[in-house]
Design a protein that fits this description.
Blueprint lengths: L3 E10 L2 E11 L4 E6 L5 H8 L7 E6 L2 E2 L5 H6 L2 E4 L11 H6 L13 H15 L18 H14 L4 E5 L7 H16 L3 E5 L3 H7 L2 E6 L2 E7 L5 H9 L6 H10 L9 E9 L6 E6 L3 E5 L6 H8 L7 E6 L2 E3 L4 H6 L2 E4 L3 H5 L6 H6 L3 H4 L8 H14 L16 H13 L5 E5 L7 H16 L3 E5 L3 H7 L2 E6 L2 E6 L6 H9 L5
Parallel strand pairs: 3-8, 3-9, 6-7, 7-8, 13-18, 13-19, 16-17, 17-18
Antiparallel strand pairs: 1-2, 1-4, 4-5, 9-10, 11-12, 11-14, 14-15, 19-20
Helix pairs in contact: 4-5, 5-6, 9-17, 15-16
The protein binds adenosine-5'-triphosphate and magnesium ion (MG).
């Protein structure tokens, strides 16, 4: 009998079967991976364990006791803490105040005790100790922090509960490698003390680094429960997707080999001395069909540049040229008009119309292009366009009229990508676009990027995943404190070079 046993778990959402007879068994002190493709049922299983979702049927035992979780509070009482893909922070409270909320589940009122704040600060100090720069400023409003740091606050809050079981559902998806290391240190500390950690991530490198065993879900059923020291990555992928997937690097190679290194191709986007509140004197060029990677530590200006080019942040000075013509971009609408598309890093806030159907989410930005005669829309054409995007990206949905929030996290991310593809852009700004999407979907997205570049689209690519950044970019410009401090040429694209440039290590 294992410390945690979930058996015969079933869950349907209307007509969609999320879980059919899934199970999971894990021990104290173990870091147990729960993995599978987008929509395979991972979050549903995690949420059943934590009382957020009610199963149609399930047997759950913890520490030899049968237990039923009707509400999240029951899970808290059993020492189960969780971090999901969606954050639960109070944006207007400070970092410390948010973490101190961890201790208030059993108390009334909102007034925080001094001791709670002190405990919260102590936990946060441990997290902060892992960074050399100014991450997690304790008094900052959480809403003012970049997504990765907000995510760290959320993790700190779960860790502060000192749980028996800690569920991390794609908690590292928006984190850069240095941030992931800090989280891994916290995981190791907890598991050494006997906490069971259930860890879900689409980054297989993370799975192999931190997990002991894995339960693999496929279409709501268990495809395998394996000891990770016995199983190679290719086998794991095969268990997840049910067939052997091609190597992601090969697509990257395909893009990298395409002859854009050839300096003859015209410059599509030229940025000269751009300054905003977060950027200082940024100049760069991207040619037709080129993927320009944006490198550096978390939050050094990569996303800020993409937001500025999309007209979401005010330009203080500088100029932008598209295909040789100066353009003024002060609002996203203008950017879209010029053929610039942004796939944002925070899909919840910027990427989706949460209460609208999948169909609308996919088609709204490109509707005008399909109106024929101008101003006249056809439901059939809209439907066909959405289906087309759904096919290209293999989005898993029941019905296009379903609300977009009924999709699994990774499939929501694909909708954000799909809606911009339909606008047939000239310049695509990708802000950590593969966050939360599974291995196969990543390859599909890489294929999409390859297709875009083959069509001459200029791509600016920010990624928290170094391997992906190196694999897909033709060149990388490295940001540090809002400036471009280095450019890594095609023949120099190595991890060592990128890390050194990111840290701005000065050679002796
Ligand atoms: N609230 C909901 N309403 C309707 N369907 C849902 C809801 N939540 C999840 N589903 C569906 O249940 C299935 C499993 O979703 P789940 O979120 O558990 O997947 P997942 O493995 O976590 O995927 P991802 O890797 O994309 O996060 C999916 O087909 C999803 O569309
Ligand atoms: Mg999920």
């Amino acid at each position: 009998m294992s410390f945690l046993e979930m058996r015969d778990v079933h869950k349907r959402y209307g007509g969609v079967v999320a879980l059919s007879g899934a199970s999971l068994a894990a021990e104290r002190g173990e870091v147990h991976a729960l993995i599978g493709a987008n929509g395979s049922g991972k979050s549903t299983l995690n949420k059943i364990l934590t009382g957020v979702v009610e199963p149609d049927q399930a047997t759950i035992e913890l520490d030899g006791e049968r237990f039923t979780v009707a509400r999240p509070q029951d899970a808290h009482r059993h020492g189960i803490a969780a971090v999901y893909q969606e954050l639960s922070l109070v944006k207007d409270l400070s970092v410390t105040a948010n973490v101190a909320l961890a201790f208030e589940q059993t108390r009334f009122g909102f007034l925080q005790h001094r001791t709670d704040r002190a405990r919260a600060a102590a936990v946060l100090e441990r997290f902060r100790a892992g960074f050399r720069d100014h991450q997690l400023p304790l008094d900052a409003r959480v809403g003012s922090l970049p997504p990765g740091e907000q995510q760290l606050v959320e993790i700190a809050k779960a860790v502060a509960r000192d749980p028996q079981v800690l569920v991390l559902d794609e908690a590292t998806a928006s984190l850069y490698s240095a941030q992931v290391e800090v989280v891994f240190d916290a995981i190791r500390e907890l598991s050494d003390a006997g906490t069971l950690v259930i860890f879900t991530s689409h980054r297989l490198g993370e799975i192999y680094t931190i997990c002991d065993r894995a339960t693999v879900l496929r279409s709501g059923e268990v495809a395998g429960a394996v000891d990770l020291s016995d199983v190679e990555e290719s086998t794991l992928v095969e268990l997840m997707v049910g067939e052997l997937a091609g190597a992601a690097e090969s697509v990257g190679q395909e893009i990298a080999d395409s002859d854009v290194a050839d300096r003859q191709r015209p410059v599509r986007l030229r940025v000269t001395s751009l300054a905003t509140d977060q950027l200082d004197d940024v100049s760069l060029e991207v040619r037709e069909g080129e993927v320009l990677g944006l490198g550096g530590l978390a939050g050094q200006g990569q996303s800020a540049l993409l937001n500025a080019l999309f007209g979401a942040d005010r330009h203080r000075s500088g100029s932008v040229e598209l295909d040789g013509e100066p353009v003024s971009i002060t609002r996203p609408k203008q950017a879209v008009g010029h053929g610039i598309a942004l796939v944002p890093g925070d899909r919840g806030r910027e990427g989706l119309l949460p209460v609208r159907p999948i169909l609308e989410n996919l088609t709204v930005p490109s509707m005008r292009r399909r109106a024929r005669p101008p101003g006249v829309l056809s439901q059939r054409r809209e439907q066909a366009a959405a289906e087309d995007a759904g096919r290209q990206l293999a989005i898993k949905y029941g019905n296009l009229d379903d609300g977009v929030m009924t999709l699994s996290g990774g499939n929501q991310q694909k909708v954000v990508v799909g809606k911009w593809l339909l606008t047939e852009p000239r310049v695509v700004l990708l802000d950590d676009p593969t966050k939360g999407i599974d291995v196969r979907a990543k390859e599909e997205l890489y294929e999409v990027i390859a297709r875009l570049t083959a069509d001459g689209v200029a791509v600016l690519f920010n990624s928290s995943d170094d391997d992906e950044l190196l694999g897909l970019s033709h060149r990388i410009v490295v940001f540090f404190e809002g400036r471009v401090v280095e450019e890594i040429a095609p023949q120099e694209l190595t991890r060592e070079r990128l890390v050194a440039a990111s840290l701005q290590v000065v050679e002796p």
